[in-house]
Amino acid sequence: MAYDDVSKPVKDFLFYLDVVTGKSKNTIYEYYLDLRCYFRFIKSIKCKTDKNIDSIDITDIDVDFLKKVTLEDTYEYLYYMKENRKCSNRTLNRRCCSIRGFFKYMCNKAGALTSNPVENLESSALPRTLPKHLSLGECEQLLGAAKDGNNGKRDFAIMTLFLNCGMRLAELISINLSDLGNDYITITGKGNKQRSIYLNKACKDAVDDYLRNERPYNNLKDDARQALFVSRNGNRITRRRVQQIVEETLKKCGLGDKHYSTHKLRHTAATLMYRYGNVDIRVLQEILGHENLGTTQIYTHVDSEKIKNAIDANPVSEIKIK
Question: Residue 184: enclosing H or E segment and its boundaries?
Answer without folding.
Answer: strand 184-188
